[in-house]
Amino acid sequence: MKNIKLRLIVMNFLEFAVWGAYLTCMGNYLGKAGMGGEISWFYAIQGIVSIFMPTIMGIVADKWIQPQRLLGICHLIAGAAMIGLFMMGCNAAQPDKAAFITLYTLSVAFYMPTLALSNTTAFTILKDSGMDTVKDFPPIRVFGTVGFIATMWFVNCATLDGGFFFTLAENANKFQYTQYQFLVSGVLSVVLFCYCFTLPQCKLQPKPAQSLAESFGLDAFKLFKTKKMALFFIFSALLGMSLQVTNGYATPFLTSFKGSLDPAMANSFGANNATMLISLSQIAEALCILLIPFFLRKYGIKVVMLIAMFAWVLRFGFFGLGNPAMPGVLLFVLSCVVYGVAFDFFNVSGGLFVDKECDPKVKASAQGLFMLMTNGLGATIGTLAAGKIIDHYCHWNEAGFLVGNTDTGWQSAWFIFAGFALVVAIAFMFLFQYKHVPEQK
């Protein structure tokens, strides 16, 4: 039993380590590679492919290819494309945009389905081994977050400057600024491809015939006929608009302080180690998961989601008010701490609400709809809108920093994001009606 858990821990560690290598620091490289204006599209693409690719790969895993094998195949394709991005970056300081975006799209199109496939693989193996998924999976899944943080720290500190070494000091050749972040992701994907074929088999189970609409989860859209569920999904999309904003722009924002005329900011830890500072968000995320059961039992879904919405207000607001020098950096730290509440209280509790409120016949489809509204539709629209706002208030300078058009350019952008989250929270407070009945001990 311990061996099975350990093997699944390794799988989850690698699954998210692949993503952590570039997700939060890609913006810095794109700016220097002449694609700063397309940052929002790079993050929106993840949302676009999330609308249909997980469903397609799920159908393939249900009918033709065992999930652990399909997980490996998807990682091989995604990893090969990531290594291709690295090679393009090595061949030209500013790669061809169309070719680079096409190859990136191929990579994330096959990576995003692996988030669900890795869960399917873990659940199947645990059940086949006679274990309880509710009890045994969460301690395994938390190592996914550990893997994400580990590669964030790795690319933050690793550098090639006359040799390979690690440093917290400023160095323009750190992986967080270069195409080497894609190499790290690609190599880990290939390693996971090989590892997946050592995992126990997840034999295909015969399933009743489904219509095309049922296969793609379209039957879940009938939930919009119920006012409560319709409002829930609409607000899920609105809140989902905040999800990728800081993934795309937090590190370019922090790194921009390296160009400050104030040495205390230019030479600060945060400005030179933006990826590591932002990793506090993922640490907080891992810890906040533990708070959700208590808050849901005591206060219910409406209060929990309101807490998440107001946490997004603070997430953006603290970025607008802070700076990387003391004591301003404490506001950046607080922004990372509240991210754990903002992300987990929304995503995890939302999934639990859907599971509780929906008919068992459409639970799986309803979960897919929840993900479509948040990580698909909401995140895509939100990221593109955020890109337009930041392009209005900021620009890439000759030194490769994304700086404000005025002294308050960045601050204006962060306050607009905070204002949007505040409006959504207030509207949700008055429009979403839900009476919570506390559980009896």
Give a quick rundown of the structure:
This protein has helices spanning 2-20, 26-32, 39-63, 67-91, 97-128, 133-157, 180-196, 212-215, 227-240, 245-255, 263-266, 269-272, 274-288, 292-321, 329-357, 363-393, 409-431; strands spanning 158-160, 164-166, 394-396, 402-404. The chain is an all-alpha fold.
Query: Which structural class fits the helix and strand makeup?
Result: mainly alpha
What CATH first level of the largest domain would be assigned?
Mainly Alpha
Calculate the terminal CA-CA distance, rounded to whole Å: 32 Å
- What is the name of the CATH superfamily of the largest domain? MFS general substrate transporter like domains
Q: Radius of gyration, rounded?
A: 21 Å
| DSSP E strands, number | 4
Shape: globular
CATH topology of the largest domain: Growth Hormone, Chain: A
Number of spatially distinct domains: 2
Spans where pLDDT lies below 50 across 5 or more residues: none
Oligomer: single chain
The strand line-up of the biggest sheet is 1-2
Mean pLDDT: 91
Residue share in helices? over 70%
How much of the residues is beta strand, in percent?
Answer: under 5%
The number of distinct helices, counting runs of at least 4 residues, comes to 17
Major sheet characteristics: 2 strands, antiparallel
Element pattern in H and E: HHHHHHEEHHHHHHHHHHEEH
Q: From the coordinates shown, what is the CATH architecture of the largest domain?
A: Up-down Bundle
